[in-house]
# Entry
Amino acid sequence: MRNPTRRAPKSVRPRRLGPGLVVAGALGLSLAAQADEGPTAAMMAPVAALAEYMRSPPPGRHPTMFAERSVTIVENFPPYLFVGPDAVPHWEAGFRAHLAAAKDSELKVEFGPPQDYSVTGKRVFFTLPTTWSGLSGGKRFVEHGAWSFVLVHVGAEWKVLGYGWGVSDAQLVAP
# Structure
């Protein structure tokens, strides 16, 4: 059921990307386009930081792009739902185990135009069509899906309060 407080999707026109997204591009991330009414560069900053963290989690460094409390994450690796005061450390441990078990490497991520953008107070919701690619167990893969975010404005920055990842298509590709 459509949420009546959400804005109807508008046609997407490319626009200049802010410096945070240029940096994200240099890190192997790309944003195909942004809608005129869509996430700002400041809103995309924690998303880009999360994607970069997931591309190659640095040893001994913990994710800092999440809110300090009330985080909820839905993922496609066990235990699938990460919620509560230890959501982020449990997600981090689960993600690192997932990468190791799948032997994922050379990960790249590309974002499509933001969809279903809505702001209420200090929270924002949007979905990014997302493509992950790389090697899994030495075999090339491409995985398409939707990455939905709820961000919260904390102080001078946006933090990830929650996200949900859903795969819509995954394939092994010839080398």
In short: The chain has one domain: 19-172. The radius of gyration is 16 Å. Residues 87-102 form the longest helix (16 residues).
